[in-house]
């Protein structure tokens, strides 16, 4: 399964990390890791469609992602 690391500049605390994890697990990604100090989000995804859904979920949660 492919993995990706995205930057989410708006991550500021552990609460933000939990909100992102919740949003991402709702769209069938796995192994979600959020590094608050570096503002990086890493996860595995099964296909490009799920990757697009994950990016949308992060946007909707208030944490737009950049590659």
Give a written overview of the molecule:
With 67 residues, the protein is of the alpha+beta class. The chain has one domain (3-61): Alpha-Beta Plaits. Helices cover 39% and strands 24% of the residues. It contains 2 helices and 3 strands, in the order βαββα. The protein has helices spanning 14-25, 48-61, and strands at residues 3-7, 30-35, 40-44. Strands 1-3-2 form a 3-stranded antiparallel beta sheet, with helices on one face. Helix 1 (14-25) crosses helix 2. The mean pLDDT is 96.
Descriptive terms for the model:
67 residues; alpha+beta; Alpha-Beta Plaits; 3-stranded antiparallel β-sheet; 2 helices; 39% helix; globular
Which SSEs are present, and which pair or pack?
Elements: E1 3-7, H1 14-25, E2 30-35, E3 40-44, H2 48-61
Antiparallel strand pairs: 1-3, 2-3
Helix pairs in contact: 1-2
Provide a concise account of the structure shown.
The chain is α+β, with helices and mostly antiparallel strands and 67 residues long. It contains two helices and three strands; from the N terminus they run E-H-E-E-H.
Radius of gyration: 10 Å
Into which percentage range does the β-strand content fall? 15-25%
Look at the structure and give the CATH class: Alpha Beta
Spatial gap, N to C terminus = 18 Å
In N-to-C order, the SSE pattern is: EHEEH
Strand order of the largest sheet: 1-3-2
Let me know the average pLDDT: 96
CATH architecture: 2-Layer Sandwich
The helical percent reads 25-40%
Q: What is the name of the CATH topology?
A: Alpha-Beta Plaits
Parts with pLDDT < 50 across at least 5 consecutive residues: none
- Give a short account of the largest sheet: 3 strands, antiparallel
Number of strands: 3
Count of the separate structural domains: 1
The total of helices stands at 2
């Amino acid at each position: 399964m492919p993995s990706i690391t995205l930057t989410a500049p708006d991550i500021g605390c552990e609460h933000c990390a939990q909100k992102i994890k919740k949003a991402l697990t709702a769209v069938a990604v796995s192994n979600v890791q959020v590094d608050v100090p570096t503002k990086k989000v890493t996860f595995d995804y099964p296909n490009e469609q799920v990757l697009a859904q994950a990016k949308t979920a992060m946007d909707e949660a208030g944490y737009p992602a950049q590659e």
